[in-house]
Amino acid sequence: MPTITIPSAAHKKAADIFSTIALPVSSFVIYTLAENSELTAKQLATKTGNALPVVQRILPKLLATGVIRKETMGVEVYYKLVHGRLETINAAAARLL
Prior knowledge:
The protein is of the alpha+beta class. Helices cover 61% and strands 12% of the residues.
């Protein structure tokens, strides 16, 4: 009988992060935020060419990965890249290859 290995919590978290940032809309959002210091969801939708609901669905996932953060200014919510987080994820991915 084959052995079934259940991934640890760290492996599950890593899989969640990699699967989220691998989505095309995530890549567009990350790249756009790298080119612009901060943007609202509406601005991200416009700049990435995605519908606002699509961007709004991916933002919580990117927030959960720690790649981006949000900051509320008045009634607007702005999204920004977390400095150094992508480099950490890239380094982890390189160790897996």
